[in-house]
Known about the structure:
Layout: H1 7-21, E1 22-23, E2 26-27, H2 34-47, E3 53-56, E4 62-66, E5 73-78, H3 92-107, E6 114-119, H4 133-139, H5 144-147, H6 158-163, E7 182-190, H7 195-198, E8 203-209, E9 211-220, E10 224-225, H8 237-255, E11 258-260, E12 264-267, E13 273-274, E14 277-286, H9 289-310, E15 313-322, E16 325-326, H10 329-343, E17 348-351, H11 356-362, E18 367-372, H12 388-412
Parallel strand pairs: 5-6, 5-7, 7-18, 8-17
Antiparallel strand pairs: 1-2, 3-4, 4-6, 8-16, 8-18, 9-14, 9-15, 10-13, 11-14, 12-14
Helix pairs in contact: 1-3, 1-12, 3-12, 4-11, 8-9, 10-12
Amino acid sequence: MAHGLQPQRTIDELKELRALTGDDNGAQRVAWTETWAKARAWLRQKMADLPVETTQDEAGNLWFTLPGASERALLIGGHMDSVPNGGWLDGCLNVLAGVEVLRRIAGAGTPPVTVRLVDWADEEGARFGRSLFGSSAASGYFNPEELRALKDKNGIGLPEAVAAFGVSLDTAKAAGAQLKNAAAYLELHIEQGPVLESLDLPMGVVLGTVGVERHAIRFTGQAAHSGSTPMDKRRDALGGVSRLHLEVRDIARRHRGVGTVGRVSTQPGIVTAVVGEAEMTLDQRHLDAGALAAMLAEAKTASEVIAAEEKIAVEWSRIWQIEPIPFHPDLIAMCDEAIRETCGTSHQLPSGPLHDAAEVCRAGVPTVMLFVQSLRGISHNKIEDTREEHLLLCVEALDRLATKTMGWIARET
């Protein structure tokens, strides 16, 4: 272990933060709230003894900068905000492990490159439904006009809520200046899924974030009386949804991706009527753009075949789409090495959820993520957990990766 690194301190600080900003239902650090502000003030206090410059950018992101021999910068990032009733690790582990790595680097003298820790503002989007607020403002994938009308459950508008923290939608994209000298970005995160636990491995290196195709699909048939309409005379719209749902699962398995039908609605929706109209949502994800496109094409073809056989109509409308975002091969290799040096074995896997790392990568900064095992694969819940011995290991692995990456940046400069 690197001299001066104290991974146990990260666990102690995670527990301290949990006591400060959580309750019996879990973490309550929702962005743009007093509890979030309290967490950030606590974070600033933790950094007060370090030779870092602390700034908040135009999108509300909090930066701690340790100057190095070069202006080229290594970025380590995470987010202090949580979902309501969230877990004790999601987001804040990334930041607090970064704090410990920054302490260790600062204690060793002037680093070869500048090192910056960032706490991204509102990664979760829990209050207004817009995830990755601060990081997308920095990456430029941010449209103020789409956010202006957003309100929380109490009717408070997003512009008003962020203004209380010195943020304006009109100037938020100026946060992009923070990425000017960024040469690499590292993010540690709990896996939030069951893969590493199923393999009995502490950590894995993330290959990238998956692409997503999200659609609404409507089948239209003919509503009719359930008693007087013979089976061969029916145009049952729900037949389309039922058959396509099963087909979508097979398509995902064939391509080693995932496909989810999360919501189904029917009209007229009564027990005595054949369904005249049925709508379903479809969410398809894959790390490979070609495979994702094939999954979508196969689902569309299947829907048309099914509609013809069921004597019903089908129409598709896209809800949302994002391309796969692969991480940097050199950083993936160094991350793999750092994990193997720490615990002997590594595993490579994609990330299903999106993270701030995806936005930084989209902005053209070489990026990689490191996952640590999640117990039961559960996150966004007060029972979210990771073994303490794995938390100790992931802080060490992040530190090893940071050291390797600083050397890589210095060589590339």
